Amino acid sequence: MKNKTVQKILFTMGSLAVGAATKSLVSFIWTRVRGNEPPSNPAHSDVKMSEALGWTLSLALVASLAKTFSRKKVTEKLALDV
Prior knowledge:
Blueprint (H helix, E strand, L loop, with lengths): L1 H33 L14 H29 L5
């Protein structure tokens, strides 16, 4: 049981770190490519629906890929059986 608890802690901490880094990276790339900050409030009247959806999809895609990649690497490095 202790091993499962350690796995959960490692995956949780890793997911938090990867999530924060991913959001910063995607925000940086969005700003460089689009020339403006990503929308922080999609309900704001100045934000177009296409921009809000583009930001959401971009962030979700990259975050999912990063989480999957990092989880795979942690599992391989620690030879965990999940």
